[in-house]
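Would you kindly consider the sequence and fold I have copied below?
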Amino acid sequence: MPSRFASLMMHSMVFRLLFGFVLPLFLQSSSVLSNPLQLGLQSTSSGLPNPSGLKVGFYQYTCPNAEAIVRDEMTKIISQVPSLAGPLLRLHFHDCFVNGCDGSILLNSVMGLPSEKEAIPNLSLRGFGTIDRVKAKLEQACPGVVSCADILALVARDVVVLTKGPHWDVPTGRRDGRISVKQDALDNLPPPFFDAGRNLYQFFIPKGLDAKDQVVLLGGHTLGTSHCSQFADRLYNFSGKGMADPTLDKRYLPRLKNKCASSGDTTTLVEMDPGSFRTFDASYYRHVARGRSLFTSDQTLMNDPAAAAYVRRQAAVADSGAYPAEFFADFAASMVKMGNVQVLTGAQGEVRRHCAFVN
């Protein structure tokens, strides 16, 4: 069996390959080995440069009012249907995690070949009509200029701002992909029933996202709802043992069971951040800290000391009613970083005329 020092050396080699540098962990305690999330929390977002071709203000000359058009449409839409904020933010996540931020989540199936939309994790997605509406406005103003992939990134930023969250400058210049495959979504989206450590190494790190990005981006669950089917196993058959997840708050469990009457409930929606699910804030971390998050992927953040410390820090801010400056700044940075994943630029891909179909 390799020594603990040898194991640590292997971990450092992996991070050299992934990030191009060795994290300064050798002076830290050996507890790092038993807490894999801690590895990522020690790294920073600065290690990955902005991809060539993406820049803030990309449409300054070709469609100078592009961002204003998106913002105006989103202001109207969210004022009328505020429940769309969470789903529209989720669309950007689900796009970027499957072969990069290329708008492939928006493509319809063709000729019997199922697209990403048809994958089980995407069946509950909403907001496609909103993206079409925004695209139509942009096509009227600047035909064939603004990509669907950029629309997703801009809409995600705007729904956060419109629900009292942070603003950030969105680098644009993405091109749209021409391929959307159902199986790719199944292979690349982090399941809510996996633990945080597994999701980190299997889905986040291969995309250049680290453990801090993970704990920060999961804070986006402050917006929106989830179907009972996404977490029913934690209520009725956790780990196949016919019992509830022991990490769930015992006082909260009966309330969830009352909402989700059976493990087969596929229609009922539950607020991910009860009492604040239409406001972007740090209050979701309070639920994680208290064992009240819906998903295994979120609750198991508390298994790692570094991730748990971040959760508790944001929960304390939410409890105090203070402005969540750290979380807001971190979320903005992680959103920009995620928005850079495997983008198409320059002559790659295309700019779709309609987001659901290739040109």
Q: What stands out?
A: Strands lie at 55-56, 171-172, 225-227, 269-271.
